[in-house]
Amino acid sequence: MLELPIVEAKEERRKKPEWLRVKLPIGPQFKKVRSLVDEYNLHTICQSGSCPNMGECWGAGTATFMILGNTCTRSCSFCAVKTGRPPEYDEDEPRRVAEAIALMGVKHAVITSVNRDERQDRGSEIWYQTVKLVKEQTPHVTIETLIPDVRATWEALERMISAGQEVVSHNMETVEELYRKVRPQARYARSLEQIQRTKTYGKRTKSGIMVGLGETIDQVYKTMDDLVAHGCDVLTIGQYLQPTKMHLDVAEYIHPDVFKMYEEIGLQKGFDMVESGPLVRSSYHAEKHVFPSTP
Ligand code: SF4
Hints:
The protein contains eleven helices and ten strands. By secondary structure, the protein is α/β, with parallel strands linked by helices.
């Protein structure tokens, strides 16, 4: 086999491979979602996070709304959402989200938010009102809430997850060894505890990690073990993509076979479901994660 010099081999691993090519955003459903987002003055993580799946998800008439504004108090080095001091609460946002979800006509909705560390309640009141209104207006719609790190403010966690949502996710994002580089204001053990506490409320729990940031396979397995030990039911694993040149470099494009292996190992380790693939994001195909898999 031809051996490449180390620098070239590194470059080779960083070239964007063909399996990351995505569909162009087109079609009437895409336009409908875009006009709802604009008309209701909402934010989506699909746009703010430069998600590669917008063509597919919006084309199928779905999107992930991002509440509590579009300015985050954190500055994670992988994330494209802007950092700064967010404005005051937008008290009308829950109503607009609930109406937009009703008009989208979906069976399942995913809602996420920025971090609001400057607020004592961590944004939990707006979270509660949003989920409550969606449930009132569209009781048949199942809801996944992808919540931020509440910094161990456990009363905020309780409020955030008590409005009737079916699934509560909190993303670990990466392995413990890369936390300082990738997620400097978060703590690995604290995020695990948040998931464990969520489980005690009887919620279906979910978490996600990105790979290709320089982690080892053993570190991924250790993260899986930790998540299972803390009561996590569903795991998503996807390729990290650099949103802009200002963000962390991709260390490696992980081959689809490795994603497949992660899926198999994750199921063996005890997750009920594992969604693993280069383009997987935590809200990708989320409707499949609402109920436990039946053997
Ligand atoms: S995977 Fe999630 S964030 Fe990406 S486009 Fe689909 S719904 Fe939006």
